[in-house]
């Protein structure tokens, strides 16, 4: 059974520290850097485990890892990012959701991709609700900037599908595109759901700090190495929030 993350809502806007390697060590380093939530990128660490153990042992290792990371006292997001959306493991949809369903009861948040079959999303949301695990439904555009209409459709559609947090990451060409992202986020917010808005790319690193001004509840930062274009380190994001009086 996951810890109930509702008690951590006062943390928003929250800094998410992304774990991409050496999971337990990175978790404690992330806490030292100021992370409020830890994201385990299983697509980045599962391959190493699979090269050493059979599936039964990999599952035991995953649960053991979570227990050790729990000692940080921070909520945990589980992410199995598909290769088409920036992940590094070429898992089939079936295998991706097999692992998602296995890990969901052990974590506080699970990340589902909006591009996944809607039947898979529905089943995963139902499982998450049973285990009191919150759902992040995400969409990533690494090579294009979607229209504002398309962004609103994705955000509102994922909310209707059961997302507690609707996350969209885009690749702007200019500041006008960043503004379109923020406007889409504002147009998609209601009292029942939250949004996470990310403008990827080095020139738009500042957006990861100011996005909460437009209602974004999460900002992802790296712990040991960036896993997305323009990502800042956890402490840089946290200090940016403090400079804008967004967090104490």
From TrEMBL:
Keywords attached to this entry: Amino-acid biosynthesis, Aromatic amino acid biosynthesis, Lyase, Schiff base
HAMAP family: AroD
Function: Involved in the third step of the chorismate pathway, which leads to the biosynthesis of aromatic amino acids. Catalyzes the cis-dehydration of 3-dehydroquinate (DHQ) and introduces the first double bond of the aromatic ring to yield 3-dehydroshikimate.
Sequence intervals crossing the membrane: none
Subunit organization: Homodimer.
EC number: 4.2.1.10
UniProt keyword annotation of Amino-acid biosynthesis present: yes
Annotated GO biological process: 3,4-dihydroxybenzoate biosynthetic process; amino acid biosynthetic process; aromatic amino acid family biosynthetic process; chorismate biosynthetic process
Source organism of this protein record: Methanolapillus africanus
Residues holding 3-dehydroquinate: 39-41, 81, 208, 231
Catalytic-site annotation from UniProt: 140 (proton donor/acceptor), 167 (schiff-base intermediate with substrate)
Pathway: Metabolic intermediate biosynthesis; chorismate biosynthesis; chorismate from D-erythrose 4-phosphate and phosphoenolpyruvate: step 3/7
Entry protein name: 3-dehydroquinate dehydratase
GO molecular function: 3-dehydroquinate dehydratase activity
Family classification: Belongs to the type-I 3-dehydroquinase family.
Presence of keyword Amino-acid biosynthesis: yes
NCBIfam families assigned to the protein according to its UniProt record, in alphabetical order: aroD
Enzymatic reactions: 3-dehydroquinate = 3-dehydroshikimate + H2O
């Amino acid at each position: 059974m996951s810890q109930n993350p509702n008690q951590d809502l006062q943390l928003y806007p929250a800094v998410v520290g992304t774990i991409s390697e050496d999971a337990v060590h990175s978790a404690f380093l992330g806490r030292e850097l100021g992370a409020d939530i830890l994201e385990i990128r299983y697509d980045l660490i599962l391959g190493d485990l699979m090269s050493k153990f059979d599936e039964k042992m990999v599952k035991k290792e995953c649960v053991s890892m979570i227990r050790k990371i729990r000692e940080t006292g921070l909520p945990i997001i589980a992410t199995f990012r598909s290769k088409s959306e920036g992940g590094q493991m070429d898992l089939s949809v079936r295998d991706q959701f097999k692992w998602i369903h296995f890990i969901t009861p052990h974590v506080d948040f699970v990340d589902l991709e909006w591009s996944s079959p809607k039947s898979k999303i529905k089943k995963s949301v139902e499982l998450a609700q049973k285990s009191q695990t919150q759902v992040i439904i995400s969409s990533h555009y690494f090579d294009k900037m979607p229209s504002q209409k398309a962004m609103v459709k994705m955000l509102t559609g994922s909310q209707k599908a059961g997302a507690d947090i609707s996350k969209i990451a885009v690749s702007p060409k200019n500041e006008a595109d960043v503004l379109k992202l923020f406007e889409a986020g504002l147009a998609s917010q209601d009292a029942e759901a939250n949004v996470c808005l990310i403008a990827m790319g080095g020139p738009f690193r500042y957006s990861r700090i100011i996005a909460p001004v437009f209602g974004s509840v999460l900002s992802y930062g790296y712990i040991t190495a960036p896993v997305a274009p323009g990502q800042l380190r956890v402490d840089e994001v946290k200090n940016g929030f403090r400079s804008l009086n967004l967090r104490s």
